[in-house]
RNA sequence: GACCCCAUCGUCUAGCCAGGUCAGGACGUCACCCUUUCAAGGUGAAAACACGGGUUCGAAUCCCGUUGGGGUCACCA
């Protein structure tokens, strides 16, 4: 049997962190067993589904690198098939028409609450003679669910879970307007798409019982279920808009590389021994449902950030440059010139270990690309006053005499100048840093000198010297 | 409220199924080292089996209960 998994988001909002992880696990599982990973857009709620949300989901998946197999299936396009299945079930006696009014239903719900649980729907029309049907009421179609016994699902994550059938009522399959409900559509689609494993959030666990009853009524074999615990916000509460439930693109915009987000998400609820940092290919090779935990996890931005820093450090310079060029150009107000790009790539090795996100990195890289004269920040400006200016002049003189410009030769020259002046290296390095970068924080100063080149370096130093003099 | 699920450092987790380890790792925190700033890196430290009963020579591991957290209870998906 070929494994077929699916991710089935409803396009009523962005792709959130939990959905992304669900998609990731489904993809891992399909890859692990050489199967297929399908995408189904559950857009049957026309009132709430939006084109923008659909795009956000597709783009989010693509950004994360979670490509699906084949074309996405749109649930709304299959409504006629869903309804036909329900009508066939009706003809076979596995379902019936119910003419209850919303008021009657509300009363039943109230009665059930007073009773302290159990079935909501009291079965009024289950065995009633259809001849008694009121003529002016459009009926819904309900499943004739089993009254006693229990419905059991053997969940790959949760284990065997059983619910007594007297807790489950006759769910609506077809609305009064003839459109199928979610519960029916999901079952028909999963069946028609040959889904073998349904990996989804814990919040669907109770739906699994209802769906199992539909499968049974239809005489279809249910797929295997794996209900993964939800991701909670940092405070332990359910992820909601108030509690850090952002769209995946928000994390992209915060500067987290996609591989860091994937790696982080993979470790939330799933583990492979003590492995923390791994590629998605490795994870797919290791992945199995039995290694998914049963308890919910809290979202921890600090750990994501540390993974982000790791992937930035490890990333190839040219690729990294490509990722931060757009925001850099935006800050500069112009596209990068070849010279700026060359300096950027050359400066990246020193910049990388100092950045935690791509946003940090772009910000820190700005000084390599800024045109002269640089505008020093307040702390840097202070380093260029009085004594600092004199030491800077000392450093300039030492630098100006260098024949073969390199990080090493610059270091030799500046160290010698510091020693001659009876100063510590830092006394010359900090003013130099302020002049060269406009800041008090930067990569190693000799590396900066090297990347900038002799002419640009001396030019920036002179800019500072002149500013301090004037 | 009813039904269902869960419970190891602050967080993510290994260990649990097939009881015997100083309960391991990672993030974060703290200290020290390195050092031209800031990072990175290195070394080290503090930090957990929710509670109560069993079963057993022995329980984080098996059983029951309590407490705490979570999910679901629509003609939404």
Helix segment tally: 19
What share of the residues lie within helices?
40-55%
At the fourth CATH level, what is the homologous superfamily of the largest domain? HUPs
Low-confidence stretches: none
Main sheet summary: 3 strands, parallel
Given the helix and strand composition, which structural class is it?
mainly alpha
How do the helices and strands line up, and which of them pair or pack?
Elements: E1 4-7, H1 17-32, E2 36-41, H2 51-64, E3 73-74, H3 79-91, E4 95-98, H4 102-115, E5 140-143, E6 150-155, E7 159-164, E8 172-174, H5 182-192, E9 197-201, H6 205-218, E10 224-228, E11 231-232, H7 248-253, H8 258-266, H9 280-286, E12 297-298, H10 301-314, H11 317-332, H12 338-351, H13 358-369, H14 378-383, H15 386-400, H16 407-420, H17 425-437, H18 445-452, H19 454-469
Parallel strand pairs: 1-2, 2-3, 9-10, 11-12
Antiparallel strand pairs: 4-5, 5-8, 6-7
The protein binds one RNA strand of 77 nucleotides through helix 4, strand 7, helix 5, helix 6 and strand 12.
């Amino acid at each position: 049997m070929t494994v077929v998994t699916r991710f089935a988001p409803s396009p009523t909002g962005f792709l959130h962190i939990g959905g992304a992880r669900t998609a990731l696990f489904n993809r891992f599982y399909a890859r692990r067993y050489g199967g297929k990973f399908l995408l189904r857009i559950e857009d049957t709620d026309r009132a709430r589904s939006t084109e923008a949300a659909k795009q956000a989901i597709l783009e989010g998946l693509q950004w994360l690198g979670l490509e699906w197999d084949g074309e996405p299936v749109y649930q709304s396009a299959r409504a006629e098939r869903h309804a036909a299945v329900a009508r066939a079930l009706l003809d076979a006696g596995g379902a019936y028409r119910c003419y209850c009014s919303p008021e009657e239903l509300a009363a039943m719900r109230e009665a059930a609450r007073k009773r302290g649980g159990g079935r909501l729907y009291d079965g009024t029309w289950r065995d009633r003679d259809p001849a008694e049907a009121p003529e002016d009421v459009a009926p819904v179609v309900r499943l004739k669910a089993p009254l006693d016994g229990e419905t059991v699902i053997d969940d790959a994550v949760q284990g065997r879970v059983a619910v007594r059938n007297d807790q489950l009522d006759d769910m609506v399959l077809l609305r009064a307007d003839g459109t199928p409900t979610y519960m029916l559509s999901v079952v028909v689609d999963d069946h028609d798409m040959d889904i073998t494993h349904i990996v989804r959030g814990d919040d669907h666990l109770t739906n699994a019982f209802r769906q199992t009853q539909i499968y049974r009524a239809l005489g279809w074999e249910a797929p295997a279920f794996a209900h993964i615990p939800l991701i909670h916000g940092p405070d332990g509460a359910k992820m909601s808009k108030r509690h850090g439930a952002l769209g995946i693109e928000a994390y992209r915009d915060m500067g987290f590389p996609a591989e860091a987000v994937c790696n982080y998400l993979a470790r939330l609820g799933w583990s492979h021994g003590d492995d923390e940092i791994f590629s998605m290919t490795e994870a797919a090779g290791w992945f199995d449902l039995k290694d998914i935990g049963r308890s919910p996890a809290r979202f921890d931005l600090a750990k994501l950030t540390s993974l982000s820093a790791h992937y930035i450090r490890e990333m190839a310079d040219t690729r990294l440059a490509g990722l931060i060029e757009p925001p850099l150009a935006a800050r500069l107000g112009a596209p990068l010139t070849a010279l700026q790009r060359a300096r950027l790539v050359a400066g990246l090795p020193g910049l990388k270990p100092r950045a935690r996100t791509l946003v940090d990195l772009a910000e820190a890289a700005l000084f390599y690309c800024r045109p002269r004269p640089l505008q020093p920040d307040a702390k840097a400006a202070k380093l260029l006053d009085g004594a600092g200016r004199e030491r800077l002049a000392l450093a300039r003189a030492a630098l100006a005499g260098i024949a073969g410009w390199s990080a090493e030769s610059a270091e030799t020259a500046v160290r010698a100048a510091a020693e001659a002046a009876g100063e510590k290296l830092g006394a010359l390095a900090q003013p130099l840093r302020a002049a060269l970068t406009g800041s008090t924080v930067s990569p190693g100063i000799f590396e900066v000198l090297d990347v900038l080149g002799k002419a640009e370096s001396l030019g920036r130093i002179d800019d500072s010297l002149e500013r301090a003099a004037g």
